Amino acid sequence: MDKKIVSLLPSCTEIICKLGYSENLVGISHECDYPNSISGLPVLTKARLSSEGNSIEINQSVSDLLQKGLSVYDVDASLLKSLSPDIIVTQAQCEACAVSLDQVKWIVSNWTRNKTEIISLEPKNLNEVWHSFDIIANAMDAPESSYILKTEINERFKLLKDKLNETRKKPTILCIEWIEPIMVAANWVPELVGIAGGRNVMSVSGEDSNFCSWDEVEKTNPDIIIMMPCGFEIKRTLEDLHYLQKREGWQELKAVKEKKVYVVDGNQYFNRPGPRLVDSAEILAEIINPDYFERKYSENAWIAIDS
Question: What distances in angstroms separate CA 269 from CA 15, 113, 199, one per listed residue?
């Protein structure tokens, strides 16, 4: 019997589909929007806060909910039960990114005669992301599907590294995951920067993304600044860019002076620990080393800004 799967996170949905199990999906989260094959599936979650506010307001709303011990998202327990999935895939890494794992466990614990398996993915670096492919593939009794996917990704990474073998200079790269307050991207992002021929600054691979002061940014004075706010597409990021541009010293930064400030679609690429992290590395390579890589990604993926 084919196993029925519910995914409560966009990256999990992408992994499931890329492994070849899109037809097994019976429910998704409200943020799952890729690939197109998932369109029309029952939506099991909703946010407790509005995404219409600015960076400051959204950050405050998330902090307030978490301080009260509340989940940022709600799960439709009755719908989840009616779908009767064999597997629920979620995460416990970041409570601002998906429903609370405890909430999912509580809902399932109230079911009867149901042996639903809950898979919680918590990757913090690229190897752990690739291992999450194995976890889902094994749960579907098809480990070979993960091997095929990882081989494809590794071949694309190898092409990047081979092209960059002759590069000697590695510019310093600051990746910003939230604009106000300023958060520096960590987890798998420093590794992606390294694969793309850059030297990541102000964060460490495998650690959580961290808030930093404006003084630290000025002291670091990176060669290139790349903005990838969590959950934001490019247009949404541009709406909050003024928080950085109005800071004293912004115009004196090396990256700003040399017009090497970029905005990428963090929501579709960099923020999601799934198969499209290889696309994220290729986007970075186009930005960091344009002499070696002809642009293939559209302006929906990344743009340069006049700061």
Answer: 13, 39, 20
Tens of pLDDT, residue by residue over 3-26, are 999 999 999 999 999 999 999 999
Terminal CA-CA length for the chain:
56
Q: Are 136 and 9 in contact (CB under 8 A)?
A: no
Q: How far apart are CA 233 and CA 303, in angstroms?
A: 11
Cβ atoms < 10 Å from Cβ of 306: 6
> In the beta sheet, which residues pair with residue 302?
264
User: Which amino acid makes up residue 190?
Assistant: P
Q: What is the pTM of this model?
A: 0.90
Whole-angstrom Cα distance, residue 11 to residue 94?
A: 13
User: b/e per residue, 143-179, with b = 16+ CB within 10 A?
Assistant: eebbeebbeebeeebeebeeebeeeeebbbbbbbbbb
Which tens digits make up the pLDDT trace of 231-264? 899 999 999 999 999 999 999 999 999 999 999 9
**Of 160, 136, 98, 150, nearest in space to 286 by CA:** 160
Contacts of 183 (CB under 8 A, 6+ apart): 176, 177, 209, 210, 211, 212
